[in-house]
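Appendix B, record 7
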Amino acid sequence: MQLVCPAGNLPALRTAIDAGADAVYAGFRDQTNARAFPGLNFDDGEIRDGVAYAHARGRKVYMALNTYPDSARLAHWHRAVDLAAELGADAIIAAEMGVLDYACRTHPTLARHLSVQGSATTAPALRYAYERFGISRAVLPRVLSIQQVERLCQSAPVPLEVFAFGSLCIMVEGRCQLSSYVTGVSPNRHGVCSPASFVRWEEHPQQERSVRLNGMLIDRFAKSEPAGYPTVCKGRYDVGGEIFHALEEPTSLNTMDLLPRLAQAGVAALKIEGRQRGSAYVGAVTRAWREAIDRHAAAPEGWKTEESWRKALAAHAEGQQTTLGPYHRAWH
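Structure tokens (predicted):
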């Protein structure tokens, strides 16, 4: 299985490659990618250096052009496709049909991966993207059970990529209506759910902290309590007189225990989430997964998750907690 790792900037790209990533995914410094916020992503010179660094070491670079343009600015996304092809990117990751159609017609030799934001969760959806736009891979949303992933591997017309570690999203990927409602901006083109400019932390005399998103109370934490990044879906709410995480707990996806099953199913690539994270995160997570994948490939029968891998991943998880998320649900 290929290990695909995040590269939010040139140091992170180099760190991922040096730590053992088979491929990295990156974005231009504009709204064509879903992590568009200040200090992140690549200008033309940086991405040229990044592609050269990766290719010199036999690795690949995928350009994330995965947002949904409005009709007035579709040409901007077309130019991004042209630039990705001119730079020698190994593939683009796209979701919007107009972007995929343009890439298919204009740069037929540039590989096209269907983004997780395409929300393709069925074989017919994947078949449509394959037949209409010639995709060569699809990234599955983080809402499927392991049984559903296994069935799709058997019926999909293209190789499949799944998220292995990082932040969870229980909504329609990248298009959260909750965050849009509270902040008034789209997570899709403004970089992240709960953009940092809307987040306010408050210290209280009662030895606790609270966090608000655009004035709305999201959660309160005891001084010693771990706190993940505040998003609406991971807040605690008063529901029928009980305060709890009504939608999702602040925790990170970690599928390492499922690695043998994902390999047996035929998953083509494991993806690490986190282009917004720093080089320390990228390096530690990539090294752990590289070692785990290589050890499984060499001796699948005796493979088991090492405690050192668990500790390394937990240290970089939200609230230092991990979960299998929808992968382990009993119903599917």
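Remarks on this record: The chain has two domains: 2-168+251-328, 186-244. The longest strand covers residues 160-167.
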